[in-house]
Amino acid sequence: MNTSAGTRRGAHAADFAALARSLPAAPGHFDEWREPDGSLRPHWQHFADSAGDLGPDALAHAERRIARQIAENGVTYTVYSGDTVGGRPWGLDALPTLIQGTEWDALVPGLRQYGRALDAIARDVYGERRLLESGALPSALVFPHAGFLRACQGVRPPGGVFLHTLALDLVRGIDGRWRVVGIRAQAPSGLGYALENRATIARVFPEAMRDLHARPLMPFCDALQDTLLSMAPCDTGAPQLVLLTPGRFSETYFEHVYLARQLGVPLVEGGDLTIRHDRVFLKTVSGLQPVHAIWRRLDDDYSDPLELKAESTLGVPGLVQAWRAGHVLVANAFGLSVLESPALLSVLPDLAARVLGEELAIPVVPTMWPAGRRRAVLDELVIKPALSSEPRDPIFGHTLSAEAQHEWSGHLSAEASRYVAQQYIPLSQVPVCHEGAVESRGVIVRALLLTDGRGDYHVLPGGLSRITGGDRSNVSGQRGGGSKDTWIVSAGPTDARPAASPWPRRPTVGERATPSRVAEHLFWLGRYAERSENVARLLRAVLTRVADAGVLPTPLRRAVVRTCRGQALFETTAVRASAVPSRDLDDDESVTGLERALVAGISDHHTRQSLGFNVAQLDRVAGSVRDRLSSDNWRVLHRLFQDLTGEVTTDAPLDEALEALDQAILALVAIGGLEMAHMTRDDGWRFLSLGRHIERLAFVATTLDDVAIGHATDDPSVLEWLLDLSDSLITYRARHARRPEWHAVMDLLLFDERNPRSVMFQVGKIAKHVRLLPDANLMAVIAEIDVVHAAGNRRDSHQRDLFGGGISNQNDLPAACQRLAARVSDALTHRYFSHVYELPRATVTA
User: Fold this and answer.
1) Which of 165, 361, 372, 685 is 20 to 30 Å from 35 at the Cα level?
2) For residue 80, what are the β-bridge partners?
3) Assign residue 294 a region: left if phi > 0, alpha if psi is -120 to 50, beta otherwise?
4) Residues 595 and 723 in one domain
5) According to the model, what pLDDT value does residue 372 have?
6) Distance between CA atoms of 76 and 64, rounded to whole angstroms?
7) For residue 412, is pLDDT > 50?
8) Same domain, 415 and 295
9) Is 45 within the bounds of a domain?
10) What is the mean pLDDT of residues 211-236?
């Protein structure tokens, strides 16, 4: 570092230290970043020395950078308000949470204790029940809890581990001690957001991260994949791991996508899986493929409608039985939300001492449940019927029906939770950046743990902190607050890699499987992308000529109106609302009505034919297969949707409309280029490409047909517009040093297989892709493709008998191609996509 740079850094650090002294301390709270005299703690002073400018302007700039990156990456947390569902941008503070490495290393053994203790408690609850029988674990804390699942009784999961991942929420009291205030054991979240936070903040303070030796997070993610694959019950070959998500309406769907992409595993929904003879299979376009491990991000209740919540449409019928039979690893095991009960903290220290033979090194927040006589009454009400193999009414003694069991369980669970009391722990304070200013707010640190397969746990070195919102008390992701990247900082480099798994390393799966649902989404991703580009090019080709000339020649105007009507661009809600009379569209003299109608429909999101609708559908479908798209592809696509939403009003000036169309076409071309440059040529890419080629075939063929029917084939303005619409004008001019002529234009747009916009180019690509689909069995449709392809190859012949399949001459070819596009689409749907909509079912041995 040169002298001038060092001087500037010193000045910036002094300014930040002065700011820290000037902010009032929160009485009764531990201050994470300042000493009692207001000076910076040593690790925060080191950060200030390395971070550069931390003044108001620099921090405000950092906030804008973070907000922009979060928006571009689509980092969201889905929130529910009344009947509406929306993705709220993930809140990330610019300043990290800093924890000294020595302090964290002292915490790690205590965190691992919790993992071992909770896993042992789960094994006992669903196994020998010694803790329950001895009274150390009150039965009223377990059996009435909605998370206790009788279906898990007596199960020994693969590897003997119930708790594969665990999240512990930590707070620091005024005495400086950390305490556990919350347990997340069912489907712990946070790892994906922690990794995204780290990637974002690393761009803001790269030198500080390096100088403070912040411990890396990715080794933990790698260890997670290795551990789950190694523990999976797979006798031969490579085990298949999938990540099970509720779908894109899940609160943490972004995290599911992020982790699936990081691990390189299929992101699946319940409908993608099926059970055959107590084994799990993934429904792919190549047939059923065995699944050996499931990282489950779906709550227990919704995971299996056969044994859990019957009305669930998100789960897999028979999944619990397949897990119970030992044929699939499910992480985490079913039935662990019972460990999340706040009341459990009241007895957890005693339970840990019993199962571990040692005291917890990190205390729990003092918790009381329930006090005195009420605890004894509830225990008496539940213990006898719960331990009985035949559940009975606790008052009258008769056998309980399933409905009655559920009703009693809900009543007692509510009764129990009503009397849990926890000691208030004032949250320790961290610096938070808000609109360029720095203030102190409360923080909760989420520690994430992973089993090592030997009865112990790894701990993520840092990760995710949650901070209070403007009210200084709420850290809820649904109702406010935000997050921070958490750095474990050290004086020098450290090896933060988890120890190697004790399980034998398995071979890995080769080509990634393509579930049928994913193939369908990719197919429609291609169709909506191509359809959006076609509509955008049509609108631009018309409005550009309106802007340039003000009056369209009669043949061109008639061809334009016919083509726009063929694409139903005058049928959008916005066009109908604008009340453009039909006579204005057909008026040979005026272009006002035509211009108003086309501009009005650009951002219309309500009807299938508009650009706005197709871009919205493109964004929706892409969100369902986001794990299959590169980060760049997703950013360009999502930005297109955001930019087009509401940008062009029904009465927008023509120049604004053209600018929006230019930007939309640039984005759509970039999306297509990224698909070609970044996507692996697997089955998923093939379906995406088929969607594009089918849509382009239908559009070009329909347009040529509309122009030919309108008898405008000799007008140069029509032909030039047609070439512009097909992005082939430059190619034509390079080949023909003359004005456009119909036969030359038809040769380029209909027959030329070297032109990526021609009809025959699309037919050739469709023929190639359909033949390469797995287990296609589409001989009938392949024969139809061959007929059309052969007809196109006979373009130089004028003998009618050489054209087959009802194609008498080249004028019949566009209509035949339109029929072929629909036929291929239907054949693919029936062959590969239709079983996606079958009712969920499980097949068992007779």
Assistant:
1) 361
2) 85
3) beta
4) yes
5) 42
6) 16
7) no
8) yes
9) no
10) 91
Q: What is the pLDDT of the chain when averaged over all its residues?
A: 84
Q: Convert 102-131 to b/e letters by CB count within 10 Å (16 or more is b).
A: eebeebbebbbbbbbbbbbbbbbbbeebeb
Q: Which residue has the tokens 């080509």?
A: 511
196 and 324 within one domain: yes
Helix H or strand E encompassing 24? none
User: Strand 437-451 vs strand 457-459: parallel, antiparallel, or unpaired?
Assistant: antiparallel
Domain end, chosen from 451, 471, 489, is at 489
- Which tens digits make up the pLDDT trace of 718-770? 999 999 999 998 999 888 877 888 888 888 999 999 999 999 999 999 999 99
What is the number of domains present in the chain? 2
Amino acid at 650: T
How far are the Cα atoms of 163, 255, 258, 326, 328 from residue 269, in angstroms, in the given order?
Answer: 22, 15, 15, 21, 16
Predicted pLDDT of residue 676? 86
For residue 223, what are its two tokens?
């260890």
Is 606 a member of any domain?
yes
Whether residues 463 and 522 share a domain: the answer is: no
Distance CA 70, CA 60 (A): 15
Rounded Cα–Cα distance for residues 717 and 721 (Å): 6
Structure tokens at 451: 């089993």
Question: Do residues 231 and 343 both lie within one domain?
Answer: yes
Q: Encoding tokens for residue 304? A: 């299996």
Cα separations in angstroms, 481 against 69, 458, 754: 19, 28, 56
3-state secondary structure 101-149: HHHHHHHHHHHHHHHHHHHHHHHHHCCCCHHHHHCCCCHHHCCCCCCCC
- Would you say residue 775 lies in a domain? yes
- Residue 807's pLDDT band (cuts 50, 70, 90): low
Closest CA to 126 of 385, 333, 342: 333
For residue 366, being part of any structural domain is answered with yes
What are the φ/ψ torsions at residue 843 (nearest 5 degrees)?
-110, 130
456 and 520 part of one domain: no
Looking at the fold, whether 476 and 544 belong to one and the same domain comes out as no
Calculate what percentage of the chain has a pLDDT beyond 90: 51
Domain range spanning residue 377? 97-489
Confidence band for 802, pLDDT divided at 50, 70 and 90: very low
Asked whether 629 and 66 are in contact (CB, 8 A), the reply is no
Same domain, 166 and 201: yes
**Range with the poorest average pLDDT among 696-705, 715-724, 794-803:** 794-803
Number of H helices, E strands in the chain: 28, 20
Q: What is the pLDDT of residue 837?
A: 57
Residue 192, C-beta contacts closer than 8 angstroms, at least 6 positions apart: 252, 254, 255, 256, 257, 258, 259, 262
For 361-394, b where at least 16 C-beta lie within 10 A, e where not — what string? bbbbbebebbeeeebeebbebbbebbeeeebbeb
Question: For 526-557, how does the pLDDT look when each residue is reduced to its tens digit (9 = 90+)?
Answer: 999 999 999 999 999 999 988 876 678 888 88
